[in-house]
Amino acid sequence: MTDHQKTWHEGHKATLTRGQRAADIMRNGMGSWPFVGGFIGFMLIWAAINTWALATNSWDPYPYILLNLLLSMLAGLQGAILLIAAKRQDAIAAAMAQHDYDTNVKAKEEIELLMAINSQQLQILQELKELATIERYGAVDPAGV
What we know:
Layout: H1 8-14, H2 18-30, H3 33-53, H4 65-137
């Protein structure tokens, strides 16, 4: 068995509700070029069928009032979905900022500990240098060599 440690992103994804995951999927879908192309294609097909193919018996004659209703409902729904996704993105950014802050505080503590150890090592080296000078010359070298 591998002891796989979860990253912050994996842990966060595991806590998402079904609605939050659906909002992310819809946001990613609606914010893509295939969606834009498909949407334009749908509107062109709608207009073509209702203008030429069913000229005498169309279900939504020009000025396409039913199509306008569908577009208005879609815009309202898209607005709500995008707001949900933006709200979630803000929460993710806040959580990541807190995680970065916690990491920086821990790194600062570890750097301060390393600096203290380095200072102790420098003090020990100075003492060893003084001891070596005493043993070599019998006294501390006045020149400080």
